[in-house]
Amino acid sequence: MNPFFLNIPEEVYLLSINENGEQHPNFRNKKFDIIMSSALLMEMAERHIIDTDLTNIIPDKLEKTGEEIVDTVIDEIITFNGKRSIIDWITHISIHGQYFRDEIITSLVRKGVLKIQDKKTLWFFSSRKYPMQNNQEVKEVRSRLRELIFSDEIPEVRDLILLSILYHGQLLDTVVTTSEKIKYSDRISQISKMDFIGQTITQAMDEFSLGDLIAEKITELLQGKSAEEKLHDHILSLIEKYRIYDESQLPDWLRKGTEQYKKTLEYVEEVGTAEITFNPRTRKYSKLNYSYYSYTGGGGM
Amino acid sequence: MTINFSLEDGYTLINLGGRLDTSNYEEASQQIDNQIDMGQRKLIINLEQLEYISSSGLRVLMSALKKVKALGGNLILCNVPEKIMEVFEISGFNTLFVITKDLENAKQKITA
Lengths: 301, 112
Known about the structure:
heterodimer; A: 301 residues; mainly alpha; yeast vps74-n-term truncation variant fold; three-stranded antiparallel sheet; two-stranded antiparallel ribbon; disordered C terminus; B: 112 residues; alpha/beta; Transcription Regulator spoIIAA; six-stranded mixed sheet; globular
């Protein structure tokens, strides 16, 4: 059980949107999936589901939590049995990026922090506020992080994690102005170093950008191919990009020979592109989408 | 992990050795917290025998520092092995703690 009202990926998502529900431009691309995957692993480390050292993720208490996205990652860790490097895990689980984002938005709506209106995710309250919990106010993430930066307090673990994500994900401007960033640069960099997963985000994003370039080239080459060829080539690029060392490590909707793979193929035929994703909870496919300020909650079959 | 405590003249000495990680962070945290709860406010943690520290282990030290500072006390680390120091430097924990090269220096600082 998570004793906190919101988990770390949820708070990162909230930092990505402004008061009007518009998403920060740096979040509207595939790097956002790296950031969200890192946030999820950090949440799991904070709850001692996993542990980390300078380079590795070490399985700890791998018990199911009842939270969809956390349990998805627990399943993967159990499947791959044992420790792998931090960068391997960040990259690998980001294959579920769109599913994670869908679930995070659904959860924030369920908790009364966001609402969906005209296909936009908006704050439930007009100002950045969380609903009261047990008649007590819960301090919103942005104000908490600003207080931490401007003080010389020893940070709470969750707040140092969040700051580490923003710093290494080049998203500090979601909490501080440029002049504040300069003025408090020593303090920000001191705190941001304190999480090993956070430190790996920059490297993962750089490597992912390179993978993206290759994927774009493949997409260009796929014009005119059959749905099966498109899907096959797309899967090959995913294997490379998401550090999948064996086809058996692919999710069932991308693994040849499964019933779900047949459905994936039908969906690729229908939409004409293999740039799709699958939500295992809703059992729905949708095209990959990074404009989450116009969230639609997925579609397809 | 090995952990033992001794009440010295004006401070509590904690000797922490072996591996401090996910398998024992709760025990280490509990034992250090107990010392603080019993009223000890000046702590020296001797890390000479520490072989490995994970994130969970680092957070045990950070949490102890936070707790003792909030109560007006102090915590000093000493005899940090090179390998552990490297972890402290990469994680920035060396900027959070007062770290001395040996117990003698730690004593002087904590009792000053």
